[in-house]
């Protein structure tokens, strides 16, 4: 097989009926897929193809694939044949299966495959490298606690129906993520940069010296009492009582959460053996 024969075979592999003509004269070369042969203008099967017998010059050749487009083969005068204006192919993406959802379109036109934009949703973050995108679940959680099974922490109430902050010496749970303890303000501080909805839980173990009193308990964000967190509980007769608060809040960077208490009547100190605050983003 001559070099031109081999080149034409490689260039036209996969095409059906093809007609090659020279712009300089009327010589025509036809390829018929029905008998897998090259024929001339007189429908004679050719055993070989040479440029000297087929064309007057080895300049610009025009290859026309019937019904699918044009392909120019140009001699660059240095003996090397190059291809320009390749045929346009349209691929059908019907074999993408479930993966088709990541594509904006199932058709791949001109070799350009367009993907949908990946936007991380709530509590998700994306890390991009040169060849991958990693999605991480961004859960923020915080926990501080106080515990003293002996004397406990005592909070006094100079006035009734007035909120007073609980200020024991809290300990920070080392498993906290995006939360920190501010010891001077007895607060759990949100250090994350993304606004979060979160569940706040406050558990208290309390007692008073004698009698029976009604106390209120609540959490505050940046010193402001969260109304939906307020509860009332009766502490009586030196018994250890357990109270709990649960509510949903929105936290922004550097918001701080604290625990508060008040007494409804007859100011009486209250003693806490445990105070446990936990916050977890939704």
Explained architecture:
By secondary structure, the protein is mainly beta. The chain has two domains: 3-84, no CATH class; 141-281, Jelly Rolls, CATH 2.60.120.40. The chain has helices spanning 3-12, 51-54; strands at residues 18-21, 28-32, 37-40, 60-65, 69-75, 81-84, 90-92, 107-109, 124-128, 133-137, 141-147, 153-155, 164-165, 171-172, 179-182, 187-190, 196-207, 212-221, 224-225, 231-236, 241-251, 256-263, 270-281. Strands 13, 15, 16, 18, 19, 20 and 22 form a seven-stranded antiparallel β-sheet that branches. A six-stranded antiparallel β-sheet has the order 3-2-1-4-5-6, with no helix packed on it. A hairpin with a 3-residue loop joins strand 4 and strand 5 (69-75). The radius of gyration is 41 Å and the shape is rod-shaped.
Secondary-structure blueprint:
Elements: H1 3-12, E1 18-21, E2 28-32, E3 37-40, H2 51-54, E4 60-65, E5 69-75, E6 81-84, E7 90-92, E8 107-109, E9 124-128, E10 133-137, E11 141-147, E12 153-155, E13 164-165, E14 171-172, E15 179-182, E16 187-190, E17 196-207, E18 212-221, E19 224-225, E20 231-236, E21 241-251, E22 256-263, E23 270-281
Antiparallel strand pairs: 1-2, 1-4, 2-3, 4-5, 5-6, 7-8, 9-10, 11-14, 11-23, 12-23, 13-22, 15-16, 16-22, 17-21, 17-23, 18-19, 18-20, 18-22
């Amino acid at each position: 097989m001559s070099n031109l024969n081999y080149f034409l075979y490689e260039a036209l592999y996969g095409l059906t009926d093809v007609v090659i003509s020279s712009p300089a004269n009327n010589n025509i070369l036809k390829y018929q897929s029905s008998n897998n042969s090259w024929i001339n203008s007189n429908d004679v099967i050719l055993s070989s193809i040479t440029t000297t017998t087929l064309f007057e010059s080895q300049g610009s050749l025009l290859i026309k694939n019937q019904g699918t487009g044009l392909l120019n083969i140009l001699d660059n005068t240095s003996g090397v044949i190059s291809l320009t204006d390749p045929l346009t192919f349209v691929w059908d993406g019907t074999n993408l299966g479930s993966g088709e959802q990541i594509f904006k379109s199932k058709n791949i036109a001109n070799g350009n495959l367009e993907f949908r934009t990946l936007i991380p949703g709530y509590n998700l973050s994306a890390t991009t490298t040169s060849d991958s995108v990693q999605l991480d679940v961004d859960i923020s959680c915080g926990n501080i606690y106080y515990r003293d099974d002996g004397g406990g922490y005592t909070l006094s109430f100079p006035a009734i129906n007035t909120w007073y902050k609980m200020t024991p010496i809290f300990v920070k749970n080392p498993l906290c993520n995006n939360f920190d303890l501010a010891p001077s303000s007895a607060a759990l501080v949100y250090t994350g940069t993304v606004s979060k909805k979160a569940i706040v839980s406050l558990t208290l173990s309390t007692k008073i010296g004698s009698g029976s009193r009604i106390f209120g308990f609540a959490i505050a964000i940046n010193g402001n009492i969260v109304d939906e967190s307020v509860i009332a509980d009766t502490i009586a007769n030196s018994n250890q009582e357990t109270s709990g608060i649960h509510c949903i809040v929105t936290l922004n960077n550097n918001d701080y959460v604290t625990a508060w208490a008040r007494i409804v009547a007859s100011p009486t100190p209250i003693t806490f053996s445990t105070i446990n605050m936990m916050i977890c983003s939704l």
